Amino acid sequence: MPLRLFNSLHRQVEDFSPLEPGSGSVGFYCCGPTVYDFGHIGNFRTFVFADLLRRHLEFRGHRVNHVMNITDVEDKIIRQVAATGLGLAEFTGRYTEAFLADLDTLACRRPHHLPKATEYIPQIIDLIQRLERRGIAYRAADGSVYFSIQKYRGCGCRYGQLVTLDPEAQRRTERVSGDTYDKDDLADFALWKARVPADGSVFWDSPWGEGRPGWHIECSAMSMALLGPSFDLHLGGEDLAFPHHEDEIAQSEGAGLQQPGRPFVKHWVHAAHLLVDGKKMSKSLGNFFTVRDLVAKGYHGREIRFLLLGAHYRETFNFTLEGLEAGRSALARLDATVAQLAERSGPAPASPTATGVDSPFVASFGEALDDDLNVSRAWAVVFDWVRETNAALAGGTLGAAEAAARLADWRRVDEVLGMGSRPAEEIPAAVHALLERRQAAKAARDFATADAVRAELKALGWTVEDSKAGSRLKRL
Ligand SMILES: [Zn+2]
Fold first, then answer.
1. Ligand 1 center–CA 35 separation, angstroms
2. Where are the alpha helices (DSSP H) in 180-245?
3. Which helix (H) or strand (E) holds 149?
4. Ion ligand 1 — residues with CB under 5 Å?
5. Predicted confidence (pLDDT) per residue in 329-346, tens digit
6. 129 C-alpha vs ligand 1 centroid, how far in Å?
7. Is the CB of residue 31 less than 8 Å from the CB of residue 69?
8. pLDDT, average across residues 163-187
9. How many Å apart are CA 224 and CA 252, to the nearest integer?
């Protein structure tokens, strides 16, 4: 069965096939962050989902060309730049670095291209000029350039491909403000915004005078510059479907750069919202978390990733700290099995793919994700494997070669899940000292002291596992 994905363009699950099957390459674009603050976990739900889809495509042998834009000029950024007195590049550079560090924390593979809007001004201007030449863009009295939805429709193009709605009613809630006075039609949106005093030193020269690009045009210009006028996959949060993505389609197809019969994007894939404790995240409700907030609370990036990967991308996901705790326990079970396999396999080499045939575990896992990224089913396959492997380990029948083969299977599956290894636990010196006291007591056959020290360790959150190889500290 081929990979199947829900395509927002047709509101149905469809087979995924690349536009250029022979090229082996998949053009993959995901709308990136606006860099004026640290990203919150709602943003990162989308990026972790994008990472899962990319990894699964790679697992299936596709060469993914992953592009993510960095919006580094926008109203909120301009306000912050004015407030902080920093230069635009310095201000956005800090938050771009923070964003990339957070992606690393969550084990997301870095996109191959991270174009910044401010570095694509010539391409943006070119695209607007092209729309102007085709009569779809017009300059209004305020000096700004707008996209005419009426003219676009007049060319036989459809506005409203991703969502069925009343665009004019929606447009009133659009985040781009201050551009509603001079345009011909309320539904039109800004491609180029004429410079206003509040912009300070943030402006570029253009054929229409000083100004800056609108938000939507950035993504059209950068995606087509890096992936061509038609590409395979465009991802983003569902809140971006309208107007942002609809406008991307209008600008890109309105420019008429595609070959006849080819769309701007073949598959549009949207990730659903994330709630925290059943509510929309907000600073005033105290349920607003950045990745950094959770790390400061003692959670590891892989635990956050594990939780975010727990729900299907099209389902609203309710994030809770209790969920993170439960995730931590589930992950610990998985880690324990993997650690035992590593111990049992020793240095035995293993290459389960040498035969070219996936084991039933790897095959079932891949099939679950082929089914519109059914992560619940994929995790069920993983935890069935954990149970079955634990039983084999406990039965004592698992030889080194078989353990190594199972470990290699897990590593192959983990190329997609990206859980990585449990980070080496830092054992506090006081805990180490207690372990040594217990060893000494045991050696002296002073079992009362040994037991008392064990209780002390327990109170500190540690347990001792004794085996033939010696004693080992483990977190409770
Ligand atoms: Zn975008």
1. 13
2. 215-227
3. helix 149-154
4. 31, 219
5. 999 999 999 999 999 998
6. 20
7. yes
8. 62
9. 8
* Largest separation between any pair of C-alpha atoms in the chain: 93
Res 10 pLDDT > 80: yes
Question: Which pTM does this prediction carry?
Answer: 0.88
Residue 65, amino acid: N
| Per-residue pLDDT at 260 | 94
- Two tokens at 237? 């949060």
Task: Report DSSP letters for 239-253, one per residue.
Answer: GGIIIIIHHHHHHHH
328 vs 58: CA distance, rounded Å: 27
For 109, other C-beta atoms within 10 Å of its C-beta total 15
Quick check: helix, strand or coil at residue 475?
A: strand
What's the distance, CA 183 to chain centroid? 36
Distance 429 CA to ligand 1 centre (A): 49
Q: Structure tokens of 55?
A: 């990894």
205 burial (CB, 10 Å; 0-12 / 13-18 / 19+) is: exposed
Centroid of ligand 1 to alpha carbon of 245 (angstroms) = 7
| Tens digit of each residue's pLDDT (9 = 90 or more) over 182-237 | 788 888 999 999 999 999 999 999 999 999 999 999 999 999 999 999 999 999 99
DSSP code for 223: H
Q: How many angstroms is it from 435 CA to the middle of ligand 1?
A: 55
Residue type, 255: A
As a whole number, the mean pLDDT across the chain is 92
